[in-house]
UniProtKB/TrEMBL annotation:
Residues 16-32 form the Prokaryotic-type class I peptide chain release factors domain. This is Aminoacyl-tRNA hydrolase. It holds the Pfam family RF-1. Belongs to the prokaryotic/mitochondrial release factor family. The keyword Hydrolase applies. The keyword Transferase does not apply. Its EC number is 3.1.1.29. It comes from Flavobacterium silvisoli. The lineage of its organism: Bacteria, Pseudomonadati, Bacteroidota, Flavobacteriia, Flavobacteriales. SUPFAM superfamilies: Release factor.
Amino acid sequence: MKTDVILTELQFKAVRSSGAGGQNVNKVSSKVVLTFDVNNSKALKTEEKELLHHKLGAKLSSENLLILNCDEDRSQLKNKTIVTKRFLQLIQQSLVVQKKRKATKIPRSAIEKRIKAKRNLSEIKQQRRKPHF
């Protein structure tokens, strides 16, 4: 993944923020919407694109666009830096390939320990019974 190339492929859009804020919300476009086209990205290899489709499938739109919003701050510039950091973290986390799990055999000592505990419990329960004459 080439982060410098990916950063050039990002598209930003400033939108009016929603929620409380009074007059500032009505007149200032401080919310930043980041869009990234996964399919048309030149910075990602085909394997990386498939991995992103698999891991971020729920977050992608029908056109395979990744859309992130940020309206945490009143400053548009701060919102832009926050959303780009969040985007890069999301991409890096989703491109990590998990190691395949190796199936291991249960150790003989663990099996013997379990059987010994079962025998012990069985003997305790046998001793609780009334004796047969």
